[in-house]
Structures are given as structure tokens and as C-alpha cells.
Amino acid sequence: MVRINQSKTGETPFQQLLGHNPRIMKSWTLLGEALEKDGQLSKELKEQVRRTLAQRNGCQYCKAKGKPDPNMVDDRVLTATGFAEVFAKSHGEIPDSVFNVLRDVFSEKEISELIAFICFTTAQQRFGAVLQLEAEA
């Protein structure tokens, strides 16, 4: 059971938890929408990263949206999701050797976007986990 009541502000259960603070919810949602869209990285790659992180960050609402695609063979997606796994396990303490793998596959603009996406997604998922946001029926 969710730890606080959902507000009447927001379209999704997640937004309704943030909706107690409409200014924060609006800014959070705008940043989320900007990060989720195609940018330096495709939205499909970022969705696989989001799914990877969801398995580690404990938000049942986020986990219910699906696991990473086990048949994914794209090198960029595999590198990004592998990095997300290391990020989640190491709480952001990334060894240079792992970071250098990113440099072999991604440009600096792409690395910046990937890490911003990972950090923001982790924050969202932990917010949901702390408040015990449940999967939608």
C-alpha cells in the first residue's frame, strides 16, 4: 500500500504522488519527457536502460512496465544497459575501466545524456520505491 495518499493533481499514480507539490511535479514531468525522447540516444535504447534499472531500484510500479528485452543484441543497447547495471550495483562509483568502455561506444554528448537519464530514472524509481507505489491493476 502506498505510504501517502495520492493527490488529485497529475495524470499517473506517480505524478499524483508528486502532485502534492504541483510546481515540482510539473518540472519533474517536463524533465522526464525531455530525457525520454529521442536525443543523442534513441528512446528505445533509453527504455531498455529504464527497464534494467527498474529491476534494481525496487519500485513495483516501474518493474511492472516490463523487464529488459533478453533478445537485444545491439552493441549500443548492451553497453548502455551493462553500464546501468554497474551504476545500480556500485551506487555511482564507476571504475575508470568501466567508464572507458562507454567511450569506446558513445560520444561525449551521448555519455552525458546516458548518465543524466540513468540518474534521473534512478531518482524516479527510488521515489516510487520509498513511497511503495504499486503496479497499476
From TrEMBL:
The keyword Oxidoreductase applies. Transmembrane segments: none annotated. The keyword Repeat does not apply. It comes from the Bacteria. GO terms for molecular function: peroxidase activity. SUPFAM superfamilies: AhpD-like. InterPro entries: AhpD-like. Keywords: Oxidoreductase, Peroxidase. This is Alkylhydroperoxidase family enzyme, contains CxxC motif.
